[in-house]
Amino acid sequence: MNNYIFGIADALIISAIYCLMFSAFQISTxxxxxxxxxxxxxxxxxxxxKGIYSAKKITLKNYYSIFEGVAxxxxxxxxxxxxxxxxxxxxxxxxxxxxxIGAMMMLIRxxxxxxxxxxKRTRNVLIVGAGQDGKLIAEEIKQRPELKLNxxxxxxxxxxxxxxxDSSINILGLTCDSEAVIxxxxxxxxxxxxxxxxxxxxxxxxxxxxxxxxxxxxxxxxYERITHKFLVSKMSVNxxxxxxxxxxxxxxxxxxxxCDIFASIGILVITLPISVIAAIGIKLTDxxxxxxxxxxxxxxxKPFKMIKFRIMYQDKISDDFDDDANEIPTDDLRVMPLxxxxxxxHLDEIxxxxxxxxGDMSIVGPRPVREEVYYENKxxxxxxxxxxxxxxxxxxxxQLKINDPAPEQRVGYDLYxxxxxxxxxxxxxxxxxxxxxxxxxxxxxK
Length: 446
What we know:
Strand content: 5-15%
Shape: globular
Distance between the termini: 24 Å
Number of strands: 9
Low-confidence stretches: none
């Protein structure tokens, strides 16, 4: 959540500074809004491509990344000013604005870091259940010091489940001891990580022992909150069903479809010169087809033909190759020289905007997989088919969060996206993806 607040703050800073700059020129309000919007989107995209808005904590590397992203943005606008032959005063103003924007973005993060360090207290956490689930959530908490949480220990009524040699398990007592343990250790947060259904005696002990004001979380809910991933093996997807059929989902679906149409048309228009060059280059390389189509699984398991620019030589194409799941080595002889450039900057995926216009895909959503992968994973991975309750996407949450597209990891992030999907978040995902694509960041799992 903090990273999205930073994103909004950054957008306001950029907008305010450039609005102030352009106020000295006689520009209509509508034109000013479009110019500033363009500048904000490009700058935020370039900064987001550095991973600023997905960072777990603020480090010196983050400050440098902000400087680098803002500097590249300023350089882009400076080149545009030069090419368009505009007033050279604008060139100097853009440089000054870039320095000011970078400084302000760093300042708000420095103030936030200082506040967290000086004023946010570490909260003690007690975990009910010392089995695998309890150890899993304890390890996730320890890996995230920025949460300012300290696991003081565990409560467990079944001591036989705990290995004597496991020194990482600090058993503080039974559930009937919860009141004393919470009081003695100043516990502010209790996480219930018990696999089986708890009987009335255990629940009564916890109700009596947990004072009002102490926050209580179910393990899988807390796991989802801190990892931004769905814990597939521990949850039911009943909530997903009700989320997808309620009235709000209908309005959201209409709005998203409208946004998909406008965005895909915009992308096709903006990238038209690149697409023409790519098409001519591919055709002249070996006189083969310009496009490569492959059957993928769409919404509700419906197959469709996904379109890409062909990046391999015509006689080297393998129908079962999946470049969404397999990273192409730089020295792969099957790939044409032009194809390597298209792949590096994800330009081979521009034709998928046609799939978006047809309604086969959305701009943001779970990446579509091949038929073989879909049916194989449907049999072996819980809730795999649930990721197809929505249209597959040109880009998605999983692409930004993980490099290894293991099916279990993929479905975890995809279901998290489906549960929390909203247009503002999807715009943020889109902007970060585009920023990384512009800089040629590679993805090994899309």
